[in-house]
Design a protein that fits this description.
heterodimer; A: about 350 residues; alpha/beta; D-Maltodextrin-Binding Protein, domain 2; 2 domains; six-stranded mixed β-sheet; 13 helices; about 15% strand; globular; B: about 575 residues; mainly alpha; MetI-like fold
């Protein structure tokens, strides 16, 4: 009840009541059948709310359109927290635009599921290949992508031996006025990372970081871009995949996996119960979890896949060699407002 | 007597079934709803609690919130500095253009119009590319020229002076146009008289010219103050990275999850209140000084010979125009043509990557362009028709309430865009009329915001058609219809085209209200650009921004080519 739009009070409860019974188990896994394809083509559109980097998202969308012509994808990209707010606002006014959603704040899916906004649908790949901890037992969502929030630096401005090794190093006076970081009020990746970092290192880390006169940007995909153009030499947080893509395209940037541990951010995907294009949404969801799309996620997206058939790209550090912070979507869901408030207290924006 | 009057009135009423009455009533009701609905809901939300019971809790919370004080002080600092700064720059420039023999005067005027056409948020992003402390082009040149250390910089746009500067760049055209037009209209004979009586140029300026343009300067600085107080895009783009808020950006955070509409409404009211107060004060100050210098028999204004100062004067104007036009446009072109903004523009780095992305890959482009174009054309057309009808009824004063209509059409001038956005959002996201999620809510926002400007422009056009002119044509043998066709209509047509262009440009520039009212299918270009800025996609922004400018310039040029449309000074 806490996280609900002011205009739509009760709408979620109504929907939940309207849902037949309490889904105990996931539905049977669904393959891409000719009937599904035909129905999706008839709907001729799918609207995808996602917080993945815009260029990556559009690439996935174009690849899907190439494979299934006749079902164009409208990509609505924004920060995960912004998407959460917009969905609440739109549904509060009975506007149904979104078919399928991907958020880098896994806590959102707990809320949407509880409010009865999601439809059960399990693509074949999810049923067959995905580990239990990466999918909802009721089949409402599964983790489409995983990303890390990392530290990074510009190699033209910082020598590798001078680069920060972890969060504690960022508090050194030499980085005052030299750090860029993204905002947990906009980005789900950063909200998740802020929760994990504050849990493991204590809020005093952020209290001190705020005194470093950081440049405050919004999206987790922006700090990598800012250090790539040399606007700041170091980023305190931000999306690993954007940084990897920039590095592989020749930008002078390097990734640092903090010694204290790297925040791990799951980005699930789910279909709305009242999606205007339900069949196109299913087709797209099935595609998103296919080995092919998951491999593309890794290769052209720089992201981490949880599909066991994907191969990590050479030159990137395999995820099992990285010390990760523990994910806890439930705790994020419970503490989200406190996290944002605490953050605003220190960083003032 | 009364009975006779009433009888005469009813006779008149019966004699001609006056079609203007239904139009009049319809218009009045429409305008009342257009303005009343959002303002009514705004007040309701501000003065009630969540259950709808009357309460001052919102205001109490705002007043006791220590994080509200800084944004307020910042906003007032910005608005005052911009108001004063714009006058200091624009008034002398307006004088140079209108009253001296400076070369390339028309060119300078055109360029100021170009800076008016530039959306302020696009200018802000261009200035990020130019003057970010480390990656900014200006600072890169500075380090290269002076061999300074990395991190040393000449300018930093992410500061309070930076915000003031960028807002000023795109606000000074308002002051410039007002001052230059006022100077155009000051008849030369007054100054000639002063000169004949032995006064020198400086003396004439002090005693005649400056007092006569003072109202325009005052009005200009007021517009600049109000514009910068209520602007959302520029502070959101430049102040938030530096860790400070203005009232508008703070107000916007109340819409983030969980939304606090009551607080947003309450925080919007001071903006409304300040605007209304200042406008009242202005009309009170100016209302007591009438300057009736505009007539049909004026002599041309005298142009002061600058002599050897001609070239320095022009250089100064061009230098000023570097800030809103030359430098930002160059930055946008460069950013559009390279992969990462910091790349130098060479034959090797030049790429069409950003163009390909925007026009082939980016699925929002076509939808947003279609929405924006549709809304611009609709708002411009409907707004002009509305302003025309209201202007006609008000100018002719055929009916008792015609002045009231004029008041209604001017009233939205007191409603800042973001306040209107909050009001419209509250009004049309719930029954009886749910317009949120459609283009209608945006159309209403644009109409409301742009109506006062268009109405004032057309009203001026109506007033400029002095009866003398029509009378003269009739004395020379023309019938009333001929006079209307040959004198009134052509004179009005340029006014109509001007206000159509004015609304078109204004709609294209608008972000403050649109940012609260858009949904996935009703995105407009300004919102798309703002979105892209949040994820740092500067190349894509540059391509979309330049396209947007090209469309605007094209449409304005086309409109001015229409038969009968003479020069319209934005």
């Amino acid at each position: 009840m806490r996280r609900r739009t002011f205009l739509g009070i009760g709408a979620g409860a109504l929907l939940a009541a309207a849902r037949p019974g309490v889904a105990a188990d996931a539905p049977a896994p669904a393959a891409i059948s000719p009937e599904l394809l035909a129905a999706a083509r008839k709907e001729a559109k799918v609207v995808w709310y996602t917080s993945v980097d815009l260029q990556v998202g559009e690439r996935i969308a174009r690849a899907f359109e190439a494979k299934y012509p006749g079902v164009p994808v409208q990509v609505e990209r924004s920060g995960a927290e912004r998407i959460f707010q917009r969905l609440a606002q739109e549904r509060g006014s009975n506007i149904r635009v979104a078919d399928i959603v991907n958020s880098s704040d896994a806590a959102h899916f707990i809320i949407w599921k509880r409010d009865g906004w999601l439809a059960p649908y399990v693509p074949e790949d999810v049923a067959r290949h995905y580990a239990a901890e990466h999918k909802d037992p009721d089949g409402m969502f599964a983790t489409w992508r995983a990303s890390l929030s990392v530290i990074g630096y510009n190699t033209r401005l910082v020598k590798p031996e001078d680069a920060p090794k972890g969060f504690a190093d960022l508090l050194d006076p030499r980085w005052t006025g030299r750090i860029v970081k993204a905002h947990p009020g906009y980005s789900g990746t950063i909200l998740t990372a802020t929760f994990q970092t504050a849990r493991d290192l204590g809020w005093q880390y952020f209290e001190q970081l705020a005194k470093q006169r950081v440049m405050q940007v919004q999206s987790a995909t922006d700090p990598p871009k800012k250090i790539a153009i040399g606007e700041r030499p170091v980023m305190a947080d931000g999306a690993e995949y954007t940084l990897l893509l920039l590095k592989e395209a020749g930008s002078p940037v390097e990734v640092v996996y903090p010694v204290e541990g790297t925040p791990f951010v799951a980005g699930p995907s789910g279909i709305f119960v009242d999606a205007p294009h339900p069949n196109a949404a299913r087709l797209f969801q099935s595609y998103l979890f296919s080995a092919e799309a998951q491999q593309a996620l890794v290769d052209v997206g720089g992201l981490r896949s949880l599909h066991p058939l994907t191969k990590e790209k050479a030159g990137r550090r395999p995820i099992r060699e990285i010390r990760l912070m523990k994910e806890d979507a439930k705790a994020v869901e419970e503490q989200v407002e406190a996290i944002k408030q605490q953050y605003t207290r220190y960083f003032r924006t | 007597m009364i009975a006779v009057d009433a009888a005469a009135a009813s006779m008149r009423l019966r004699r001609r079934v006056d079609p203007s009455w239904p139009i009049f009533i319809g218009l009045a009701v429409f305008l009342c709803l257009l303005i009343g609905m959002p303002l009514g809901w705004l007040l309701f939300y501000a003065f009630t609690d969540r259950t709808g019971a009357p309460s001052l809790a919102n205001f109490a919370q705002l007043l006791t919130d220590p994080t509200m004080v800084d944004p307020f002080v910042t906003t007032m600092t910005i608005a005052t500095a911009v108001g004063v700064g714009c006058c200091l720059v624009a008034a002398p420039m307006g004088w140079l253009v209108a009253r001296t023999d400076m070369p390339a005067r028309r060119f300078v005027r055109t360029l100021v119009t170009a800076s008016f056409v530039t959306p302020p948020f696009l200018g802000a992003i261009a200035w990020e590319i130019l003057a970010a402390p480390n990656s900014g082009m200006i600072n890169q040149w500075y380090r290269w020229l002076t061999a300074a250390d990395p991190y040393e910089h000449l300018v930093d746009i992410y500061t309070l002076p930076g915000v003031i500067f960028v807002i000023g760049c795109y606000t000074f055209p308002y002051v410039f146009v007002l001052v230059a037009n006022a100077l155009d209209r000051i008849p030369g004979d007054l100054e000639d008289a002063s000169a004949i009586l032995g006064a020198r140029n400086a003396h004439t300026a002090r005693r005649i010219t400056i007092p006569l343009v003072m109202p325009a300067i005052l009005a200009g600085s007021l517009v600049a103050f109000l514009q910068s107080m209520t602007l959302f895009g520029t502070p959101a783009i430049l102040a938030m990275p530096a860790g400070f808020h203005t009232l508008t950006t703070k107000l916007w955070t109340f819409f983030q999850y969980p939304p606090k509409p009551g607080l947003a409404a309450a925080a919007a009211l001071p903006l409304l209140l300040i605007t209304v107060t200042l406008l009242r004060a202005q009309s009170w100050i100016l209302g007591r000084r009438g300057y009736t210098v505009v007539g049909a028999k004026n002599s041309d204004p005298r142009r002061i010979r600058l002599g050897p100062l001609k070239v320095p004067a022009l250089a100064l104007c061009l230098l000023v125009l570097c800030c809103p036009v030359f430098l930002p446009y160059a930055a946008l072109v460069k950013a559009a043509l390279v992969r990462t903004v910091s790349d130098a523009l060479t034959l090797e780095t030049v790429t069409l990557h950003n163009f390909r992305f925007v026009f082939l890959d980016f699925s929002a482009t076509r939808l947003a362009m279609r929405n924006t174009f549709l809304l611009c054309v609709l708002a411009a057309t409907i707004g002009t028709v509305l302003a025309l009808v209201v202007g006609y009824l008000a100018a002719r004063r055929t009916m008792r309430g015609s002045r009231f209509l004029g008041f209604l059409a001017t009233a939205p001038i007191a409603i800042p865009g973001i306040v209107l956005g909050v009001g419209l959002f509250l009004a049309y996201t719930q029954p009886p009329l749910v317009l949120y999620g459609t283009l209608w809510i945006l159309l209403m926002a644009y109409l409301t915001i742009e109506l006062p400007g268009a109405y004032q422009q057309l009203q001026a056009a109506f007033h400029s058609i002095h009866p003398e002119l029509e009378e003269a044509s009739r004395i020379l043998g023309a019938t009333r219809l001929q006079a209307l066709a040959h004198i009134t209509a052509p004179l009005l047509r340029s006014g109509v085209v001007a206000s159509w262009c004015f609304i078109f440009i204004g709609t294209m520039r608008e972000l403050s209200a649109a940012i609260l009212l858009f949904t996935a299918n009703t995105k407009v270009l300004s919102v798309v650009i703002y979105d892209l800025n949040e994820s740092g996609d500067l190349g894509a922004i540059s391509v979309i921004g330049l396209t947007m400018l090209l469309i605007t310039f094209g449409v304005v040029a086309l409109a001015n080519r229409m038969p009968g449309a003479t020069a319209s000074r934005g």
